[in-house]
Specification:
5-stranded mixed beta sheet; 3-stranded antiparallel beta sheet; thioether bond; di-copper center containing domain from catechol oxidase; alpha+beta; Jelly Rolls; Tyrosinase copper-binding domain-containing protein
């Protein structure tokens, strides 16, 4: 019977730490049924017409039922928050007591349950933190020295010695210390694998992915992790490094994480992706046979698409609104979360492990010190995005601003913080990033053909109107455009044209990826640095508390893409989906094009 990797074997520096430091973080094995390898489908082709009527009545009913449940639960939730008294009274009674505000509340630690790795609880892992009734409210401390997070590939020997000392000290803390590596890894597990029920909506778990909570949650997570490391070496200026995976000089895993005798090392990584191998920002579970220059060109074009042309609005960049009472279904991730964030998780994780531990699964990702460098660069993208102009600004919805999380700080005290506490990191959290060049900012994708005005020919007999459809082969879909005309520059600025792939349903405990092309030749698809490549859907394995499949959406900004392809006057576009990896069937509910302000 397969077993998950033991996180106790963390390299040859074991003399610095307890050999059973992760013993409380091992999965409980009642069953193990997942196969060790992902299935890569052989590309075949079918075509679907999206001009036909989608069968979405059941989807609309589900959305209405969810909204009704959420509204009915508001007053009950308010009563529960008040009734928690000593645990939550001091931190939540300022939450607009009689207004129908719906920010996600901080979890009640007393209701935390084992996180699930496989559907239905056949395999669980303990992720719950120590419980305390004392909760502080986060307040920015302007006396903290401003810290600069360095690029990991160019840190000094002096910095590295300091970092290794801090990481070793964290590993050496007792398992039940909330500042220990064991407990810090559990933070991500609990918030991402269904360990916390929503307060007042106990049938719904808190999930910080696939929505607008992704960026602020991870920012505050990194902040407290960083502060703990600094306190352990008595250095308030200590700052985490970032993996500069958006630039060719930083594409390989930084060398500081590959020394097997270092506390920064993690043995559960993909052996084929060690330096000097360049990261594949479009990775889905299978290595492409491309040369180094092609990898560089594709990575930079992906970054341009995810940060510039495909991320012009807060909705696209941050992802779906996520409010109290919402189920974590039918949502969609922001551009950077979906790609390359998810791809890098899978690229680093060890495919020889049952659940692609460590980085390849959300429950175990926080065990790898490289996780924090990865997320520092994700966080850095948020900073950079807000400098690119246009509508690239933080969300102003109070349900986002007032969403709350709980973290233990450097003094082992539980702290309640809100999203609004994280918006100005230099001022509120006292850190910034070492500046480096941004080569992707000047790497706009180009069309494969000069003004690709000729769409692939699809015979009428190949079209079908049946939805949902199972994606097991290369599939081309004709999608009608509601405004088939060339728009003015002002109109494009005012409204972004969006392609929405609806109700993507799959087994959430497995890695999933498919690519999306527009007006391309389905028999000979473009490279990912071409305009025809619209993006990908990427999912990192995670646990959940039900056997129901995961359902989500993908939203892609395509205004610039249509302009590049000379397709602005077309009444429809041809969308080609290419399944790259999945053990189980992927179901697509439908497609539509709409406009967003």
């Amino acid at each position: 019977m397969a077993t998950a990797p033991s996180p106790t074997t963390m390299g040859t520096y074991s003399s610095l730490i307890s050999t059973n430091s992760f013993s409380t973080f091992l999965p409980n094995k009642s069953q193990l049924s997942l196969s060790g390898k992902s299935k890569h489908y052989v590309a075949r082709r079918s075509s679907i017409s999206c001009k036909a009527t989608n069968n979405n009545n059941s989807n609309n009913q589900n959305e209405q039922q969810e909204e009704s449940s959420r509204l009915l639960g508001k007053l009950d939730r308010r009563n529960i928050l008040i009734g928690l008294g000593g645990l939550y009274g001091a931190t939540t009674l300022d939450r607009k007591p009689f207004a129908f505000a719906d920010p996600i509340a901080p979890p009640d630690l007393t209701t935390c349950k084992p996180a699930e790795i496989t559907p239905g609880g056949s395999e669980t892992v303990p992720c719950c933190p120590p419980v305390t009734t004392k909760i502080k409210t986060f307040k920015p401390d302007l006396s903290i020295p401003l810290r600069t997070r360095p690029a990991a590939h160019q840190v000094t020997d002096e910095y590295l010695a300091k970092f290794k000392k801090a990481q070793a000290a964290m590993r050496a803390l007792p398992d039940d210390d909330p500042r220990s590596m064991v407990q810090q890894a559990k933070v991500h597990c609990a918030y991402c694998n269904g360990a916390y029920p929503q307060v007042g909506f106990t049938d719904n778990d808190i999930q910080v992915h696939f929505s607008w909570l992704f960026f602020p949650f991870h920012r505050m997570y990194l902040y407290f992790y960083e502060r703990i490391l600094g306190k352990l070496i008595d250095d308030p200026t200590f700052a985490l490094p970032y993996w500069n995976w958006d630039s060719p000089v930083g594409f390989p895993i930084p060398d500081i994480y590959t020394d097997t005798s270092s506390p920064l090392y993690d043995q559960y990584r993909n052996a084929d992706h060690q330096p000097p191998v360049l990261v594949d920002l479009s990775y889905g579970g299978k290595d492409d046979d491309v040369d180094e220059q092609t990898r560089i060109d594709e990575n930079l074009a992906i970054m341009y698409r995810q940060m510039v042309s495909g991320a012009k609005t807060p909705d696209l960049f941050f992802g779906h609104a996520y409010r109290a009472g919402n189920l974590n279904t039918g949502k969609y991730p922001g551009t950077i979360e979906n790609m390359p964030h998810n791809n890098i998780h899978i690229w680093v994780g060890d495919p020889s492990q049952t659940h692609q531990e460590d980085m390849g699964n959300f429950y175990s990702a926080g065990r790898d010190p490289l996780f924090y460098a990865h997320h520092c660069n994700v966080d850095r993208m948020w900073n950079i995005w807000k400098t690119l102009g246009g509508k690239r600004k933080d969300i102003t919805d109070t349900d986002w601003l007032d969403a709350e999380f709980l973290f233990y700080d450097e003094n082992a005290e539980l702290v309640n913080c809100k999203v609004r506490d994280s918006l100005e990191p230099e001022k509120q959290l006292r850190y910034n990033y070492e500046p480096v060049s941004l080569p992707w900012l000047f790497t706009k994708p180009t069309a494969r053909k000069t003004k690709n005005k000729t769409k692939a020919k699809v015979a009428a007999t190949q079209l079908t109107s049946k939805f949902p459809a199972t994606l097991v082969e290369v599939t081309t879909v004709e999608v009608a455009r509601p405004k088939p005309r060339k728009r003015s520059k002002k109109e494009k600025v005012d409204e972004e044209e969006l392609l929405i792939i609806k109700d993507i349903e799959f087994e959430g405990t497995e890695a999933v990826k498919f690519d999306v092309f527009i007006n391309d030749d389905a028999e000979s698809l473009s490279r990912r640095d071409k305009s025809e490549f619209a993006g990908s859907f990427v999912h990192v394995p995670q646990g959940k508390t039900t056997k129901a499949k995961t359902k989500t959406n993908l939203k892609l900004g395509i205004t610039d893409l249509l302009e590049d392809l000379g397709a602005e006057d077309d009444s429809s576009v041809l969308v080609t989906l290419v399944p790259r990896v999945s053990n189980s069937p992927i179901t697509i509910g439908g497609f539509k094009i709409e406009y967003s302000s």
